């Protein structure tokens, strides 16, 4: 069964969901079956966060989506933004206590699912409700935005489909302790920077990440966080319609192209942002060319050096420079 109603718009889009009556019936049947299996005994522990591949996608995602919204996190080992986003998704999933499940899919090992969902870049987050695939967002988003998205997903799942999740679910033994215990000691300065970013304090996040880098210039987490915070600050007050019109009307205006590229990146259109800036470098000279080149390098930091899109764009940049 392939995902439907896909449109990676960068926002929650639940308006296209169909067959609510059938979904409600399936949800009621699933709850009845689970209650029958459990009887009067204690609530069985469940895996709220699972690794999923193409072989078990139907059982772990499609079937379970009849009684609980399943959030899908497409990630990869080389993806630096994924390393920021995935722990937040896992922690929030356990915090929500069975109202959502999280399915983690390794993008490199599950290319068929990537194609079926139309994933253009990672991290990419979707949901499946009553067998319907829904785009949530692309890129590493602040925690406040993720929480708002999950709240809306849960509300619509219940109101439209009667899907209320695994009420009273408890995580499998050891899962909560593992979620609370970091794999390695957390850098307090880095944690403070991330907290500022999650709360929307972009100026505070930028300064905090700079402080980390002053002490540890090699910190990948700080470089990615700083690039992301600076990007979000640049686009927060932009009028998207005006910016895109100015960029279209004035292709030689470097500042206009920089603003449009930032909007592309913030909206998850990574290849468009990179392509626009490579073309700007190609058309420009002197200080304008250097400005466009530096901005492109800054956007590379947001995605991570090993991302295939960055590798491709670096090659394109080299060709226009040399």
From TrEMBL:
Annotated InterPro entries: Thioredoxin-like_sf, Thioredoxin_CS, Thioredoxin_domain, TPR-like_helical_dom_sf
One Pfam match: TPR_20
Domain Thioredoxin: 24-155
Protein name: Tetratricopeptide repeat protein
Species the sequence originates in: Streptomyces marispadix
Organism lineage: Bacteria, Bacillati, Actinomycetota, Actinomycetes, Kitasatosporales
């Amino acid at each position: 069964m392939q995902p439907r109603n896909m449109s990676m718009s960068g926002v929650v889009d639940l308006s296209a969901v169909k067959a609510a009556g059938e979904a409600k019936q399936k949800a009621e049947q699933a709850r009845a079956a689970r209650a029958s299996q459990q009887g009067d005994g204690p609530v069985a522990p469940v895996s709220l966060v699972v690794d999923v591949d193409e072989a078990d996608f139907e059982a772990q995602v499609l079937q379970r989506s009849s009684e609980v919204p399943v959030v899908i996190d497409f990630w990869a080992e080389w993806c630096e933004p994924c390393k920021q986003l995935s722990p937040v998704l896992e922690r929030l999933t356990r915090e929500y206590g069975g109202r959502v499940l999280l399915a983690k899919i390794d993008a490199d090992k599950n290319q068929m699912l990537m194609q079926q969902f139309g994933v253009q870049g990672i991290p990419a987050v979707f949901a499946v409700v009553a067998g319907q695939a829904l785009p949530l967002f692309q890129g590493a988003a602040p925690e406040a935005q993720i929480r708002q998205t999950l709240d809306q997903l849960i509300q619509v799942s219940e109101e439209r489909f009667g899907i209320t999740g695994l009420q009273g679910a408890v995580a499998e033994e050891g899962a909560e302790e593992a979620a609370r215990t970091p794999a390695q000691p957390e850098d307090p300065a880095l944690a403070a920077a991330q907290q500022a970013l999650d709360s929307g304090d972009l100026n505070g996040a930028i300064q905090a990440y700079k402080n980390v880098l002053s002490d540890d210039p090699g910190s990948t987490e700080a470089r990615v966080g700083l690039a992301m915070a600076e990007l979000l600050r640049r686009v927060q007050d932009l009028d998207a319609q005006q910016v895109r019109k100015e960029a279209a009307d004035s292709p030689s205006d470097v500042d206009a192209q920089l603003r449009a590229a930032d909007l592309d990146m913030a909206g998850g259109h990574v290849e468009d942002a990179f392509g626009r800036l490579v073309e700007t470098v190609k058309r420009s000279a002197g200080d304008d060319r250097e400005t466009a080149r530096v901005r492109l390098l800054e956007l590379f930091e947001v995605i991570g050096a090993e991302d295939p899109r960055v590798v491709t764009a670096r090659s394109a940049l080299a060709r226009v420079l040399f």
